[in-house]
Design a protein that fits this description.
Blueprint: H1 2-10, H2 14-17, H3 20-50, H4 54-80, H5 93-111
Length: 112
């Protein structure tokens, strides 16, 4: 995603340069995707040793994965068809993803 954003900027693509809202949302999508990917890797590495209950670990893993997908996808979709500085309706996926992340992390903290 980062290389694609740099290419849009390097080739002076008008849809990228003329919309500050799109640039901001797509940067947020890239940043959140990267950081949440690292969070998923940390969870995979540490959950087996710190969460004893398999059901809690599986459920938290699913919630974490869905949240890690929905947040960046929501930011990206919010920047696809934005109008007059407002994001498109795809941005509504962001709070759903954030809620899933919070629920997964609270579940893991309670089980640890």
């Amino acid at each position: 995603m980062g290389v694609a954003l740099e290419a849009l900027h390097g080739f002076k693509v008008a849809q990228w340069l003329e919309s500050p809202t799109r640039r901001e949302l797509w940067r947020l999508a890239h940043a959140h995707g990267s950081m949440l990917g690292i969070l998923c890797l940390l969870f995979a590495a540490l959950a087996g040793a710190h969460v004893a209950d398999d059901r809690v670990r599986l459920r938290s893993s699913r919630e974490l994965c869905w949240g890690a997908v929905l947040m960046p996808v929501g930011f990206f979709a919010g920047g696809v068809l934005n109008f007059e500085g407002d994001p498109s309706l795809g941005i509504l996926l962001v709070p759903v993803g954030a809620l899933l992340l919070v629920v997964a992390l609270v579940r893991v903290l309670r089980a640890a």
